[in-house]
């Protein structure tokens, strides 16, 4: 199924598909992404991307306050104030999952996307729409041609490739370390633990 993001009920229909632990391709505040509920859909997304390495996927949350559900560590208010927006924070997990001690979270700036996440009630994985080691697809026609038969839902918002990537900041050690400088500048912060 292909929906337009601008359709009045697109957020509700997208949430219903995702609640079934299926994968959808949806526009994010940066580029199109494979999305599915955390943690149930991780292997499905890896299979779609043909990704064998265990690189983690970003987790999208509906509000800045939700981050406290997943980490017991302090988060500088200067960083939380940049949310919603294109800032990804790597934090220590309150409940580690096997070898996974940290995870990357973003509260997206896109209101439609936050509405979808809120309706699901759980974080969503987000990773670029592409096969492993290939460039991300940004044109909806290319996405439909490549993955239209592989997922039950694609939400179209037209071309989605002019946006800069999110800024990624690792705060898991108590020091703010910029891993990728994207659209949001990060203030210099002292150690906060």
Order of helices and strands: EHEEHEHEEHEHEEE
How many individual domains? 2
Q: What is the fourth-level CATH superfamily of the largest domain?
A: DHBP synthase
Query: What fraction of the residues are assigned to beta strands by DSSP?
Result: 25-35%
Number of separate helices: 5
Question: What's the helical proportion of residues?
Answer: 10-25%
Low-confidence stretches: none
Alpha carbon gyration radius: 16 Å
CATH topology of the largest domain: DHBP synthase
**Order of strands in the sheet with the most strands?**
1-8-2-3-7-4-6-5-9-10
Task: Look at the structure and give the CATH class of the largest domain.
Answer: Alpha Beta
Specify the overall morphology: globular
Tell me the span between the first and last alpha carbons. Answer: 47 Å
So, CATH architecture of the largest domain?
A: Alpha-Beta Complex
Profile the largest sheet.
10 strands, mixed
Q: Name the average pLDDT.
A: 89
- Structural class, by secondary structure, is alpha/beta
Number of strands: 10
